[in-house]
Amino acid sequence: MEHAAAGEERMVSERLRRKMEDVNVKAQEQLAPIQDHVNFTLQKAYFKCAYECFDRKRRQEEINSCVEYCSVPVLSANNLVETEMEKFQERLRRALMVCQDKYEAAKLHQTPSVAMRSLESCVDQAISESILVLPHIVDRLWASFSASGPNKP
Is residue 10 part of a domain? Predict the structure, then answer.
């Protein structure tokens, strides 16, 4: 009996691992246009701006200040994306901790297989809810960039 429960636990663990990979894939898919905007549009503007800073008539401090000024949009965008993704990951982590707590409590008064199914159901719901939040994060990022993303007016 214990061997069967361990086998079931491994199978559920593998399914949960795959679901977490799915969240990562969905997040990368949703954020691809944002990353493209940052890596190409903003980086390109940065390099054009920085190139214009190099003028023999300027002192080194002026050039450095100019280049630093040019980097602000790219750095700000990267920081915004990083902050939003950290918040997303933290929310998901907290939801998964709740699932883990429920599982630990369920193990005390339910059979291992029932507790394991409850855990899997809880994780499914947490992941589904997290995936539904991704488009809102992307919209918020586009709005903060004051730019139009793909398929945006």
Answer: no
pTM of the model: 0.79
Q: DSSP secondary-structure letter at 41?
A: I
- Is 103 among the domain residues? yes
Domain interval for residue 114: 29-144
Per residue in 108-135, pLDDT (tens digit) is 888 888 888 899 899 999 999 999 999 9
Determine the Cα–Cα distance for residues 61 and 7; give it in Å rounded to an integer: 66
Task: Read off the pLDDT band of 149 (50, 70, 90).
Answer: very low
What is the C-alpha to C-alpha distance for residues 153 and 150, in angstroms, rounded to an integer?
9
Q: Map tokens 């199914």 to a residue.
A: 117
Distance, in Å, from the CA atom of 63 to the CA atom of 56, rounded to the nearest integer, reads 9
Structural domain contains residue 11: no
Mean pLDDT over each residue of the chain, to the nearest integer: 88
Distance CA 92, CA 63 (A): 44
Residue 22 lies in a domain: no
* DSSP structural state of residue 152: -
Task: Report the number of distinct structural domains present in the chain.
Answer: 1
Euclidean distance between CA atoms 4 and 111, whole angstroms? 12
